[in-house]
């Protein structure tokens, strides 16, 4: 049982990745972003997830530097993720995008670098660049985001290194069971973005009943459900009390019946794009 905010899963290359982190999608550069990241780190979070397309890597980097000083932490105690955007997919362009992200973040390396979307005809060359970065020791782990089973199979058939992580939209209306099963069989860590479905599930009666039984919030129940299914999760919030609440999921356990009820809410419903039809 995962028992602490700083508990980690071990990726197939031996790198340790926290089970729960802070996502900063749609958080603009500025004081709110900096304070949110700093609050998360001060309250025990060690994983921060950003991306080039979020246009907030500079603020995340500032927050990291300030948080390290204020909390007497070392860079090695944090796990920082970013992603290469579709426009930069390609061998040389992915290598250049990595350097740009590092510069904006003010870091010497990333713990995890992901291909953001499986843009057809582009991601294989980008994966070759990811393998180069990994072989050169520039990044601790490499992976993908929004990849479906056939995308993963394509990367594995054409590449030398298996992705270590696949970050996808995942919540009770999109439980991704087939993808989870495939990733677990292959030793690829599945990670959930938008685990709370941007707040759309917080009034759901089934989830409210389970939450009441455990004296927890619906958000806490959903995040606990992720963890018990072996899924890394990165809820986004800029409010300190929510950041604290989202991390208070290590003192209870859902029953098998609870998990089955939540699984039963699946509708294969996305709030983000369909990876097979996203061509930005």
Automatic annotation (TrEMBL):
Spans through the membrane: none
UniProt keyword annotations, A-Z: NADP, Oxidoreductase
Stretches assigned to the NADP-dependent oxidoreductase domain: 21-266
Active site: 54 (proton donor)
InterPro entries per the UniProt record, alphabetical: AKR, AKR5G, Aldo/ket_reductase_CS, NAD(P)_OxRdtase_dom_sf, NADP_OxRdtase_dom
Residues engaged in binding substrate: 116
Residues flagged as site, Lowers pKa of active site Tyr: 83
One Gene Ontology term of the molecular function aspect: oxidoreductase activity, acting on the CH-OH group of donors, NAD or NADP as acceptor
Signal peptide: none
SUPFAM superfamilies listed in its UniProt record: NAD(P)-linked oxidoreductase
PANTHER family named among the record's database cross-references: 2,5-DIKETO-D-GLUCONIC ACID REDUCTASE, NADP-DEPENDENT OXIDOREDUCTASE DOMAIN-CONTAINING PROTEIN
Family designation: Belongs to the aldo/keto reductase family.
Protein name per UniProt: Oxidoreductase YtbE
